[in-house]
Design brief:
By secondary structure, the protein is of the alpha+beta class. The chain contains 13 helices and 19 strands. The longest helix is centred in the first third of the chain and has 21 residues, at 77-97.
């Protein structure tokens, strides 16, 4: 699960991790009302208006409705004109940003609707750095990743200048050791009080990652201010869904409007679904068989459009929902149903398929491979339905057929 920047900063601030002062706004009036208190509290007439969406690249992103407006805007009108001038500019920006569609490098051309803003104090920036604590699944532990190339996409840094990425592995028994934090500070070119400030910062961040069961905490940029302080200018957090029962306060931060509608519908129906970029929809029971199905489709030159595991005890209604989710994807050119019935009965799957086709129709090729419990009944249900279904005798046979039908 992901959360917004302002929520990530709220969690960091509660753990003593330095962040700029800021206020969230869900309306134009709330955005304007945040300006004067921020200026007075920070002593800085500069404020920043930030779009809050679950995507990176907001600073370079633009709005469909207002192409000249960025996703992140620095308001300097208060320097010469005072708080009133800053408020006037923030009102103008909020009217152009709220309710409109922001397109960034990570949203795709369809963009995302901005429903909240974060109004933040301006910061005197001397240096921009990159810092993250992320779960390394190959090592089964968190690692710290840092770079002097703050403000850039870390993927680009890794591809073009991998030597500028510094890593430190965190021992889960002791956490990030002081010598590791000091080593990271030195590698980033820090000295004196700034190095000490960074060491405290990164140790607190590593502790937060362990406490909150995060998959990722990313700060890009992490800044060194003009007076040598280290501060999180941005903040991104993603959490392990399986651990959310331990963090009900974080679970309450979920913004379902930012999640993929199909994945959300699948989750609400008790299905395991992940959208992919291919053209062949997959409906399978069991995570292992689903992975094998996708691998076999790729072996024959096709590309899966999704991972969808209906589980071992799915009902006909769940199968119908799964089928509807697949058919809503405009990229799907064919569907492969691959069921090996153990606990899951083939007649239940067949009933769900028939009901789904009757509700939504079938405009793409459908290949079905059924094997196991009540397989005869399942095949008979499909045959009696009159559906134009291509039967497959095995996983290999089905994958080869659906790839051929979608070329």
């Amino acid at each position: 699960m992901k959360i917004h920047e302002h929520q990530a900063k709220q969690l960091m601030a509660a753990r003593g991790i330095p962040v700029p002062l800021g206020r969230v706004a869900r309306s134009v009036d709330e955005a304007v009302a945040a300006v004067r208190p921020l200026i007075e509290e920070s002593g800085n007439p500069v404020v920043v208006v930030k779009s809050q969406i679950h995507a990176g690249g907001r600073g370079k992103g633009t709005f469909v409705e207002h192409p000249d407006v960025r996703g992140v805007n620095v308001v300097t009108e208060g320097v010469a004109g005072g708080p009133s001038a800053a408020e006037e500019r923030v009102r103008e920006l909020a009217q152009q940003m709220l309710g409109n569609t922001l397109v960034t490098i990570q949203t795709g051309p369809e963009g995302k609707r901005v429903s909240r803003l974060y109004i933040e104090q301006g910061i005197d920036i001397a240096r921009e750095l990159y810092l993250a604590v992320l779960l390394d699944r190959s090592r089964s532990r968190n690692i710290v990743m840092a770079s002097t190339e703050g403000g850039m996409e870390i993927e680009k840094v890794a591809a073009e200048t991998p030597d500028k990425i510094i890593r430190a592995e965190i021992d889960p028994a002791i956490g990030l050791a002081p010598f590791q934090a000091n080593g990271l500070a030195h590698a980033l070119g820090m000295e004196g009080d700034t190095a000490k400030s960074f060491a405290r910062f990164v140790i607190a961040l590593a502790e937060a990652a362990a406490e909150l069961d995060t998959d990722l905490i990313e700060i890009n940029p992490l800044v060194v201010t003009g007076d040598g302080r280290v501060m999180a200018l941005d903040g991104k957090m993603a959490f392990d869904d399986n651990a959310l029962y331990r963090h009900p306060d974080i679970a309450d931060m979920r913004d379902e409007t930012e999640e993929d509608a199909s994945e959300l519908a699948a989750k609400n129906a008790g299905l395991n679904y992940i959208k992919l970029e291919g053209t062949i929809g997959c409906l399978v029971n069991g995570a292992g068989l689903a992975m094998a199905t996708m691998d076999t489709i790729k072996h024959f030159g096709g590309e899966p459009a999704n991972f969808l595991d209906v589980g071992g005890g799915a009902t006909a209604d769940q199968v119908t929902t799964a089928f509807q989710i697949i058919t809503k994807d405009p990229n799907v050119k064919g569907i492969f149903v691959n069921i090996f019935g153990g606990i899951m009965r083939c007649d239940v799957i067949a009933t769900g398929i028939v009901e789904a086709v009757e509700r939504v129709g079938l405009e793409v090729p459908l290949v079905v491979r059924l094997e196991g419990t009540n397989v005869g009944q399942g095949k008979q249900i499909i045959e009696d339905s009159g559906l134009q279904v291509v039967n497959a005798d095995s996983l290999r046979d089905g994958a080869e057929k659906i790839v051929e039908l979608t070329r």
